[in-house]
Amino acid sequence: MDSNLIVLLPVAAVWTAAGVVADGLPRLDRARVLRRRTGWLSGLTLTGLALTAAVLVAGLESTGRTPIDRAASALLLAAAPALLVAACTVRRIRRLRAGAGAFAAAPDTPAPHGLRATSAHPLIGLPLQVTALAVLPAVISAAGVDLLAGPAVTGPAITVGALGVTVIGIRHALRHNRLAERAMPPAVAVSPRAAGPLHV
Question: In 3-state terms, the chain is what percent helix, strand and coil (to 5)?
Answer without folding.
Answer: 80, 0, 20
